[in-house]
Amino acid sequence: MNSYYAPITYRVPPEEDEWLLKTILHKRMDVSRKLLSRLKMTEQGIMVNGERVYISVRVRAGDRVEIRMETEVSEDILPQPIPFEILFEDEHLLVVNKAAGIIVHPTHGHYTDTLANGVVHYWASRGERFRFRPVHRLDQETSGVLVIAKNPYSHQHISEQMIAGTVDKRYTAFVHGVPAEPHGDIDGPIDRDPAEPHRRIVTPEGYPSLTRYAVKAVYPGASSVELKLESGRTHQIRVHMSSIGCPLVGDGMYRHALYSVAEPAPQQAAQLAEVAALDAAMPRQALHAVRLALRHPVQPERLVFEAPLPPDMAALEQRLQRDAAEAQ
């Protein structure tokens, strides 16, 4: 016999008396066509007042409409006891504070030691059955808030919010130099670098990409910025900040932007020495997903998740503050 997650329920109000069940599912419960096809194939996928029905029936005021999804597991992910920090969890979502240095999902040639391995082990240890469904990704060396959906319905809803631009993703970064304006938009299409396909570049032929930034603090040779993503391209923040001459501290892949500064040799040498000193204090890109806000996929509430700066970035901030104090 199939096992199911707890049902998602909708009570039909008087003004929707005699509506088609199909309309209720699409317009009121926001069930996608893809998920609806899956639900129709299961014994308890779509029920009204506890009975299995066709979606062509008409409902009455007060009817209890329920959808049930079959339980799933990620059979291709090896469970491993990898620790991770939980910010929030209920039957629909798992929100974690991802540590820097850990890959989110197994990839070709890297099947273990990922966040997915740790999460699958955590669920199995509690006797729970969920498939690992990250709604978005963070680079291996980027830390911070990451949302994982625990069923297809939740994944669909949050993905739609991201497409609609209603998910508020905020990042904190420390960058070399100071942007020319205290706040602004970086509107630059992004695509692969033909010369180095593992890198991305801003190019007219790329995919539309928009990053909003605001300078929060200025230090000798560096600054702290808050960033908001309006699109989700690979390496977007790193590429965009590099494109305006302010690559992230510790980001060796996009540091090349600093080597084209039109300064006389002695000044450039001094600047690059400062860059090297800062990068030596930060062995990864100084980028942290500090805040994420979204609407709960089932409850009518907006959720806000925050993760404080990790120890390495907090230490970098303290160093920059000391440098600023000594320079006064």
From TrEMBL:
Any GO BP: enzyme-directed rRNA pseudouridine synthesis
Keywords, in A-Z order: Isomerase, RNA-binding
Q: Which residues form the active site?
A: 139
Q: Give the enzyme class.
A: isomerase
Q: Which reaction does it catalyse?
A: a uridine in RNA = a pseudouridine in RNA
Q: Which GO terms describe its molecular function?
A: catalytic activity, acting on RNA; pseudouridine synthase activity; RNA binding
Q: What is its EC number?
A: 5.4.99.-
Q: Which Pfam families match?
A: PseudoU_synth_2
Domain of life, per UniProt, equals Bacteria
- Has keyword Flavoprotein? no
- List residues of the Pseudouridine synthase RsuA/RluA-like domain: 92-243
Function comment: Responsible for synthesis of pseudouridine from uracil.
The family annotation for this protein states: Belongs to the pseudouridine synthase RluA family.
Q: Any idea what this protein is called?
A: Pseudouridine synthase
